[in-house]
Amino acid sequence: MSLRWPKNLSYNKTQELSWRQGVLAYADDTTWIAKSKKELQEIIKISEEFYELNDIEINGKKSELLVINSKSNKKDSRLAVKVGKNKDTVYARRNTEAIRHLGVWISEKGGGECNVKIIAKEVSRMCKAVKFKKATISQLTYLNNSVLLPSIEYRLQTTFLPKLKCDQIQRPIWMLIKNKVELARSAANSICSHNRLIGLRSIWQNQLAHHITELTIRLNQSDGIGITTQLRLKDAQLKCRSKYSLLDEKCTFSPVKVKNNLTYNIIRNAAKLGFYFQETQANTNNIEIRGTELTSLLSGKELRDFIDSKNLNIFTTDQLIEEEGNRLLSWKQVRWLRGYKGKGRKPNWLLEIKKS
């Protein structure tokens, strides 16, 4: 995991921030992480020598291979590695296929589609098991709050679902509860979730509480988990083109989505509820630069084009104005100051800035 963090915005100087995690292990589950097929095969070879000394054998048939951000252009060929004494061939899963790691499903494509399907099945299975049985409201509330939700919480460790999706998954439970207490199907769900009435916790509420708590713990750690969390924070901040840290109350979240960044999704949804994380002055990620953020002056297609512009590290209006402060720089001058050749078509977002 690595990114280029701005060091001197006047001359577009950056420094590389990175973290390398080679292995993850829990009980008898081991995950090897490598940058290439050759490196992974070498790691497997060394591990096999160690396992042989300790009379341990790798089961190639239970091994799985996941390739993320592959540079291979051959669509028909599947990457593979040799594992175990018998040199079993382990083929990489295709982009839509997922593998399970400690109960959480992960795929090359990313996203939480696999976990959502599993959660929906769990909800459906519980509803079918209880539908025709006699059960009190207290028993149904216990099954939801203390049996079903902890399982869903575990499944969603790497995923943050939007509220609409959470409500869609939980709809069968709402319908079941309303049927048991003889309420109309059109009755407000808030009746079931009210603490003084039924006290049924929702998937959305449980997800928010879990992720905010876990993120707070990760932000206060100084080990690999804390470092990678900070890297994900910085990466999302750069993609939002914000000079303020995502933990700063002054930060305005871009309407353009930041894909596959759990930390960003948690902070953004927490901010909607008025919940902010307090960042110490020593660890702030604020970028020291004056001027109005360009994201506040753009919208629509121009905003998306600006967000997608790479390696220029432009955040505010001051970076587009001459030192005298009375005239905008030309696009040729902007590119030259950023260390690129002056040639190139003037972007639409710059034209929009000049109009405003």
Short descriptors:
two-stranded antiparallel sheet; alpha+beta; single chain
Largest sheet: 2 strands, antiparallel
Kindly provide the radius of gyration, computed on alpha-carbon positions and rounded to a whole number of angstroms. Answer: 25 Å
Order of helices and strands: EEEEHEEEEHHHHHHHHHH
* Beta strand count: 8
**Gap from first CA to last CA:** 38 Å
Strand line-up across the major sheet: 1-2
The whole-number mean of residue pLDDT values reads 83
Give the class from helix and strand content and strand pairing: alpha+beta
Shape descriptor: flat
Which percent band covers the strand fraction?
5-15%
Q: How many domain regions?
A: 4
Name the helicity range. Answer: 40-55%
Molecular structure report:
By secondary structure, this protein is α+β, with helices and mostly antiparallel strands. It is 41% helix and 10% strand. It is built from eleven helices and eight strands. The strands form four sheets. It has a two-stranded antiparallel ribbon. A two-stranded antiparallel sheet has the order 3-4. Helix 2 runs antiparallel to helix 3 (137-155) and helix 6 (203-219) packs across helix 8. The model has no long low-confidence stretch (mean pLDDT 83).
Task: Please give the structural blueprint.
Elements: E1 2-8, E2 13-18, E3 23-26, E4 29-32, H1 37-53, E5 80-83, E6 88-91, E7 98-101, E8 104-107, H2 113-131, H3 137-155, H4 163-180, H5 190-193, H6 203-219, H7 224-239, H8 262-272, H9 300-308, H10 331-337, H11 348-355
Antiparallel strand pairs: 1-2, 3-4, 5-6, 7-8
Helix pairs in contact: 2-3, 2-4, 6-8, 9-11
